[in-house]
Amino acid sequence: MSIKPIKRVNVGEQVFDQLKQMIIDGEWKQGDKLPSENALADMLGVSRITVRQALQKLGTLGLIETRLGEGSFVKVIDISENMQALVPAVYLSGQETEQVFEFRQIIDVESVRLAVRRGTQEDIEELKKIHKKMLQKKDESDSLGFAVMDTEFHFKISQMTRNPLIIKTNEILREVINSYVTTIIEKMGWDLALKYHGKIIDAIIAKDEKGAVEVMREHLENNVKYIEEIKCESSIRTTY
After folding, report:
1. 3-state SS, residue 72
2. pLDDT band at residue 181 using 50, 70 and 90 as cut-offs
3. What Pfam families does the database record attribute to this sequence (predicted)?
4. Taking Cα atoms as reference points, which of 39, 58, 42, 46 lies closest to residue 9?
5. C-alpha separations of 191 from 39, 56, 206, 229, 231 in Å
6. Does a structural domain hold residue 219?
């Protein structure tokens, strides 16, 4: 994409739109330095003030950053840094458990579909190891250890998607999930969790997307049901 002279109709918006599009199209990549205000004004055939206003708007949107004495640069986006804001947002909402598990219902179902498509034999062996550790924790009556392995199982599924957004989101929310999984396991029972995870592994091995999705959906719907029951029981105890 080459810079084109601006027609003098809504000049400021045209300048902004063209500069924004160059960033979106990758003409200017993350970390690249933009031409100076004077250079852009000459290329676009507009005033320096118009260019400055467009750059300020791009800065407000978080697309560029201006460094004193250096110029304007396309902002380098750190996914993990930006998504880390999810943690306080979730905790401060006052409904973190319901929101996280509703989110998990949506994301994990599609994650297991991608895991079937993209998972390797090495990934499957890792899932089997986690499942075996869950069995060991059951034999040891270690509910906390069992819950940690349960969360690790789902996190491994997210890693198998090879999608950094899915992986990072699950990583950030693990703490919130871990804090409640123990209670769910105690209510649901060890065997049911093991059964679901075993069926998920079998479906992944068989490359059965539909089967994996159905098992994961049923598994997580049950989790949400147990959360609602636990909340209800807690409310009743508090009342009395």
Report:
1. strand
2. confident
3. FCD, GntR
4. 46
5. 68, 58, 22, 19, 22
6. yes
Cα distance between residue 106 and residue 112, in whole Å:
11
Beta bridge partners of 65: 73
Q: Are 212 and 204 in contact (CB under 8 A)?
A: yes
Tokens of 178: 């871990």
The position carrying tokens 């270690």 is 142
What is the H or E stretch that residue 67 is in?
strand 64-67
The alpha carbon of 209 is separated from its chain's Cα centroid by a whole number of angstroms, namely 21
Domain extent at residue 45? 11-74
pLDDT given for residue 7 in this prediction: 56
Neighbour-count burial of 161, counting CB atoms closer than 10 A to its CB (0-12 exposed, 13-18 middle, 19+ buried): buried
Q: What is the CATH number of the domain that holds 157?
A: 1.20.120.530
Give 124-179 as a DSSP string.
HHHHHHHHHHHHHHHHTT-HHHHHHHHHHHHHHHHHHTT-HHHHHHHHHHHHHHHH
Most confident of 54-63, 103-112, 115-124, 189-198: 115-124
Q: Which two tokens stand for residue 166?
A: 């899915």
- 35 plus 119 within the same structural domain: no
- In eight-state DSSP terms, residue 9 is S
Q: pTM to 2 decimals?
A: 0.64
